[in-house]
Amino acid sequence: MKRVYINSMASISSQKTFENTEFLDTIIEYSEPVIFAHDPDYKQYIAPAAARRMAKGIKMGVVASKIAMDEAKIETVDAIITGTGMGCMIDSEKFVSAIIDNNEQYLTPTSFIQSTHNTVAGQIALGMECKAYNFTYVHSAISFESALLDAKMQLENDEAKNILVGGVEELGEHTTKVHKAINHIKPTSVSLSEMLKSNTQGAVFSEGANFFVVSNEKLQNCYAELIAVETFNTLQKEKVSETIESFLQQNNVQLADIDLVVLGNNGDVDFDGFYNQLSDAIFKNTQQVYYKHLVGENNTVSAFGVWLASKMLKTQTIPEIVKINDTNLSEIKTILCYNQYRGQNHSFVLLKKC
Amino acid sequence: MNKGVAITGMGIISAIGNNVAENYDALINEKKGITRVDNIETIQRDEIMVGEIKHINAELIAQLNLPPENNYSRTAMLGVIAAKEAINSAHITNIKKYKTGIVSGTSVGGMDMTEKYYYEYLTEKEPQKYIESHHAGDSTQKIAEQLGIEESLVTTISTACSSAANAIMLGARLIKSGKLDRVVVGGADCLSKFTINGFKTLMILSDTYNTPFDENRKGLNLGEAAAYLVLESDKVVKAENKKVLAYVKGYGNANDAFHQTASSENGDGATLAMEKALKVANLKPSDIDYINVHGTATGNNDLSEGRAILRIFGNEMPEFSSTKAYTGHTLAAAGAIEAVYSILALQHNVIFPNLNFKTPMKEFSMIPQTKLKKKELKTVLSNSLGFGGNCSTVIFSKEA
């Protein structure tokens, strides 16, 4: 079996992350419970006429994929695999509301065409003229991890050499209102630095795109080696620790080998316990980091967790702003990322320094 | 590498039947399920025909014995019915005995409830339970719950009309790589105003019975359905002395990279998908005994797919037919529906007729099989092509 490497990456998030030369050097503060992406200059990457037709998620996905491809210095890939939990919300909302508001009359096809979940992967393929394998996973908080697992299997078996993998999520106005109504979004303003202590229900909703070129050959500027990805539709809170231990065991890694753990805390008082129980026990003496206080919560934000882990492995630095504790770690060799959303769809991603 | 993955169970619900036996009966007796739409109030009613499952939601809720406070979308209910039949047909009594996962395809997801309660969600408490059923992964989570699949790999694919074919493909790869011992694969999609009006704006809905591969075809009939297969590793098949229905022998996926909704004139994506599937199966085109074509009866699909098939099969064209005239185009579920039909074809050594065909297309001389035909079948190739350029081929075989 071949080894799998993250050779390049790109992140469009609520922070200024699209420049790969930077690493959370300046932080943008937010205080609203819904936060948008800090946009790159899309015109630099997409012709204005094409960009006008694209909803935000398509733009973010297309541009993030271009940045990742540029960094990997390749023109094409053997597969394009995306994950998106909610899909193209903006066009979906446009089309549903037009159906209702106009009683099924005077409809135009554009928003319907762009509403399908595979629009982003299709647009990336069109832009690259890439006729290769093209998949889109749409399973809530593990959409990105499903894509990553698919890529990993193909690379290990040498069915592909280079694969573009990414997660993308856009905010839809109506969907946001609806999720506010059921308290999945925090009720009041919260400053990002206070997010974990908010003691309220719900999360800060966000949008973004994180793309990676993963390969079975290591480039010189490789970020990380991808050791394992595993997802679970359900996992009881009291079983998370033992499941992590058996996951590590299967991959010949000891708990003590984990130098750093990337946790998906989002400040939801009902669900942060999944992470806190680890911080207080099996990872008590391990360096813990979190990121949703910088980039909010969305179905594929765990891809940002992988971005963060990879960046830390490559630069061997841990930005102060992401530290939960401080263990004075001298070398980062092995990182575990753990995420879940509302107690469901748990994922583990294990990365090593390359 | 070229060994097939065993299929040990299957289940289906479609416009032509509530289970595998009813679907088979309809297929061999040329009973199509295309009617006017009854369960959705739409101003398009008199302008379109659909492949509708005639049970209303309340009947599905009763059949599944769901509590009144349930928040199942129609997609989820159809999915559970078909997945349960698949598990029963594989004689699985203890789902936890082996590492079992699910890979499902859907495009509509919970849109049926979203379009019903879109504005009410903001003000009415009662329908708010459906807010969380909107996302595409919800139906798969519910199927997993109903089957008792816990702490496992459960995921969803949405690549438009090729979703379920891709779910079968991923499932086969998960078994081959040893990630799972057993996996339920397939897809589910219900009818919705969203898709009815969406396809209407694209002007590819027929106002009468769809006529695949006919010169005068007027477009597709939308359908709703769910179908699932159970794939099991050789280890499980051996340990449990399982009867194998057929094998997933080959699969291929490619992107047409031509247009967001239309297929390229020469069917580049479909050609690549079929080539890859034949390569994985280690078969030559002449080894294929029957092609269950995607054949949606749109002007664009049938021409593009036909040309792709000609590029692969040339003068060695096996019998081919589209079963869309029976069921309508069931979108994300289509690949799974046609997988069940391909397996039935292998089991019974029969080729199902391409109904409603009269006039050959002027661009080529491809004539589908229009009458039920008995033929010894070893391999069946099934195509699924979709929006976003997604093209998929799965090859089913009698022998591993």
TrEMBL record, chain A:
Entry's SUPFAM superfamilies?
Thiolase-like (SSF53901)
Sorted alphabetically, the keyword list is: Transferase
GO CC aspect terms: cytosol
Where in the numbering of this chain does the Beta-ketoacyl synthase-like N-terminal domain appear?
A: 45-215
Gene3D superfamilies attached to this UniProt entry: 3.40.47.10
For the biological process aspect of GO, one term held by this record is: fatty acid biosynthetic process
**Has the keyword Transmembrane been applied to this entry?**
no
Q: InterPro entries annotated for this entry?
A: Beta-ketoacyl_synthase, Ketoacyl_synth_N, Thiolase-like
Q: Which Pfam families match?
A: ketoacyl-synt (PF00109)
Q: Per UniProt, what is one GO molecular function of this protein?
A: 3-oxoacyl-[acyl-carrier-protein] synthase activity
- The yes or no answer to whether the keyword Coiled coil is present is no
Name used for this protein in its record: 3-oxoacyl-(Acyl-carrier-protein) synthase
Query: Which species is the source of this protein?
Result: Aequorivita viscosa
TrEMBL record, chain B:
Can you give the residue ranges of the Ketosynthase family 3 (KS3) domain?
2-398
**Biological process according to GO:** fatty acid biosynthetic process
InterPro entries hit by this protein: Beta-ketoacyl_synthase, Ketoacyl_synth_C, Ketoacyl_synth_N, PKS_Beta-ketoAc_synthase_dom, Thiolase-like
UniProt keyword annotations, A-Z: Transferase
One MF term in the entry's GO annotations: 3-oxoacyl-[acyl-carrier-protein] synthase activity
What SUPFAM superfamilies does the entry give?
Answer: Thiolase-like
| Entry's transmembrane regions | none
Q: Which GO terms describe its cellular component?
A: cytosol
Spell out the family assignment given in the record's similarity comment.
Belongs to the thiolase-like superfamily. Beta-ketoacyl-ACP synthases family.
Q: What is this protein called?
A: 3-oxoacyl-(Acyl-carrier-protein) synthase
